[in-house]
Amino acid sequence: MRYDSWIARSSDGRSVEFAYKELSDGTAAISAKTDATSVMIVQQSIKAPLTRKQVEDVFEHEGLEPCRQGRRNVVGASQARTGIQQNSGE
Questions:
Q1: Cis omega (within 30 of 0) for bond into 66
Q2: Which of 80, 11, 1 lies closest to 41, judged by CA?
Q3: CA nearest 14: which of 34, 37, 38?
């Protein structure tokens, strides 16, 4: 099972630490964290493998990017929808 973490700039210029973990059932857990905020998504619709860009896009496109100070989100299968496309040989 693959694990990856990296730091990237958000659209508003903040440093965001992203993490990606492939799970044994063929899905993935993803997270994004700033100094004050953490967002984690674990749901069956996130099929592994994903690229770093796909992970970042989930948070940006779904408005889940950790951007409000002091707010913590944990998003489960019934609370988030994703537009992740399965990797095609990347």
A1: no
A2: 80
A3: 34
| Residue spans of alpha helices (H) in 1-90 | 52-61
The mean pLDDT value for 61-86 works out to: 44
Token pair of 87, please?
């990797």
CA–CA separation, 85 vs 12, rounded Å? Answer: 25
Answer for the pair 41, 32: CB distance below 8 angstroms, yes or no: no
How do residues 7-16 score in pLDDT, each as one tens digit? 998 877 889 9
Please tell me the distance from the alpha carbon of residue 48 to that of residue 8, in angstroms, as a whole number. 21
> What was the pLDDT predicted at 58?
86
SS3 59: helix
57 Cβ contact partners less than 8 Å away, ≥ 6 residues apart: 83, 84
d(CA 66, CA 89): 30
